């Protein structure tokens, strides 16, 4: 399906614009009182089988092995000390080749991004990779004392942890995703907030630095504001100008549009 800017599709987008937010990063999804997602193991393994059976048939991943490596990474450390490198073996078990020219990065445009990706079917987001698919929206942490299993009663907030188990996994996944990007990439940013490009977001803090200017052909930035505004940032206004400067300094070719999708 190719995307055409007809009034019906744009009104779908405008409806979708009313949803979203939350960068992977954002503490909202991860309140201190919330513990590990119930049935974590079944969800993760089930999603893995769903991925290898329905999403990417014929991919040869060992779902049980991936779970074992994941569990190992989280269990063997105390709950606030799961480092990126602790997931190394898990990431080894989940190698993935990404198609050039199809990657979509986003920040604070979560729902829009997913519908954009789904509607156009042209794009791949982090959540379309095996690891992103398996762990999307889940929470986990070990017990205070290591080797005692997952804590289903409470998990610490990102901000109170040196190495939060959820954050470390996403950070590595984001880094891998960005480092593998090639051809044209698309970056979707929210024009209705200040600091649409935020160095503390997963995109600004991790992915941007992992992009390789020799592999990436063009960085195509799309700034999307809410239908009803406010219109705070654009290609020539606010933090997006900083992003463009960073891209230029690092030798990327880029384009930026702020009027449509
Ligand atoms: C999966 O592999 C089988 C056997 O190699 C092949 O017949 C089938 O078409 C493949 N399916 C997909 C979706 O690639
Ligand atoms: C932009 O962010 C605001 C505030 O977080 C959110 O309400 C809105 O849906 C987002 N808009 C787009 C287009 O992503
Ligand atoms: C890549 O992006 C540039 C700039 O938007 C565009 O001119 C070019 O056609 C794109 N290439 C592909 C293969 O889409």
TrEMBL record:
GO BP, sorted A to Z: positive regulation of B cell proliferation
Signal peptide range: 1-32
Family, similarity comment: Belongs to the ADP-ribosyl cyclase family.
E.C. no: 3.2.2.6
InterPro entries found in the cross-reference section: ADP-ribosyl_cyclase
Keywords carried by this UniProt record: Disulfide bond, Hydrolase, NAD, Signal, Transferase
GO MF annotations, alphabetized: NAD+ nucleosidase activity, cyclic ADP-ribose generating; phosphorus-oxygen lyase activity; transferase activity
Protein name as it appears in the record: ADP-ribosyl cyclase/cyclic ADP-ribose hydrolase
């Amino acid at each position: 399906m190719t995307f055409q800017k007809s009034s019906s599709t744009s009104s779908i987008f405008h409806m979708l614009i009313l949803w979203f937010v939350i960068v992977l990063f954002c503490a909202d999804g991860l309140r201190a009182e919330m513990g590990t997602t119930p049935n974590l193991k079944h969800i993760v393994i089930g999603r893995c089988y769903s991925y290898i059976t329905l999403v990417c048939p014929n991919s040869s991943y060992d779902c049980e092995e991936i779970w074992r490596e994941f569990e190992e990474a989280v269990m063997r450390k105390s709950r606030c000390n799961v480092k990126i490198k602790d997931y190394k073996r898990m990431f080894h078990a989940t190698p993935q080749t990404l198609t050039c020219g199809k990657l979509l990065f986003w920040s604070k445009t979560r729902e829009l991004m997913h519908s954009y990706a789904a509607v156009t079917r042209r794009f791949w987001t982090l959540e379309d990779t095996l690891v992103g698919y398996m762990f999307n929206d889940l929470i986990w942490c070990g017990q205070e004392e290591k080797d005692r299993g997952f804590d289903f009663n409470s998990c610490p907030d990102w901000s109170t942890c040196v190495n939060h188990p959820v954050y470390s996994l996403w950070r590595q996944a984001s880094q891998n995703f960005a480092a593998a990007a090639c051809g044209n990439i698309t970056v979707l940013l929210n024009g209705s907030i200040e600091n649409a490009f935020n160095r503390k977001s997963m995109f600004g803090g991790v992915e941007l630095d992992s992009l390789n200017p020799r592999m990436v052909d063009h960085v195509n930035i799309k700034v999307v504001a809410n239908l009803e505004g406010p219109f705070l940032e654009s290609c020539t206004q606010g933090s997006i100008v900083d992003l463009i400067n960073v891209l230029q300094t690092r030798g990327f070719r880029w384009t930026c549009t702020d009027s449509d999708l």
